[in-house]
Amino acid sequence: MGYNAGRCIGREACRERCLRSCETGALQARADGSVAIDVNRCEACARCVRACPAEAFELYGEGLSVADVLAAVEEDGLFYARSGGGLTVSGGEPLVQAGFAARLLAAAHERGLDTAIETSGCGRWEDLERVCRHVDQVFYDVKTLDPERHREWTGVGNERILANLGRLCETFPELPVVVRTPVVPGFNDDAGSIRAIADFLETLPRPVRYELLPYHRFAEPKYAQLGRSYALAGLEPPARARMAELARVAEETRRDRT
Predict the structure, then answer these.
(1) Which of 8, 41, 72, 207 could bond to 56 as cystine, CB 3.0-4.6 Å?
(2) pTM assigned to the model
(3) Sheet of strand 137-141, all strands in order from the earlier edge strand to the far edge
(4) CA 96, CA 68: separation in Å to the nearest integer?
């Protein structure tokens, strides 16, 4: 359950609608008139979402079937037919729900929809392989080649990620794979980090496309709405000139290897 204090019109105006809508007592009034959510009491029943006229509450995530998702996707079927687009399963991480993702993508293929996934690659190979049987394109994150730095910033090493990428390229030789590096200042925005990744990509069983993505702050407001601290609060995205420079490093490294 998320709460956007910027939309809240005040405790007094909404006491009946919001605070009293919560049967578990998870909503508590703050001194400044805003509302706090006690996550230990909140059952995500969404009563406050329905009660709040200002839409200050939002329920993140809901249970859906494959049929539910496809019904929503196919509402834009004419657009996909004209644009050549389709269904991309992203996240979060699709491999966390690999069984559902595989069933959804298979059903989308049966209906003639192009499919893709965006993944960190940090999952069991069996799950990645099962999902990739039903996709037309894979977008795959490689954040750094340094295993210790990867562990420090993400909480896990990168050994499985790199191994899975190699197996992916070998097992699905015709499947388009785009490797992407989110460039985060202070983490991997130096020439050495990008050069190491570009160099590694040339050792894969077959060619892949490589893209650099600038870090953005889109998730920061959502963390605040969920009452969580954002580890990179205040970090500015890399400048365009820096991104262009790193792109040249990657291109030159790959060209030199070939």
Answers:
(1) 8
(2) 0.86
(3) 86-89, 114-119, 137-141, 177-183, 209-214
(4) 19
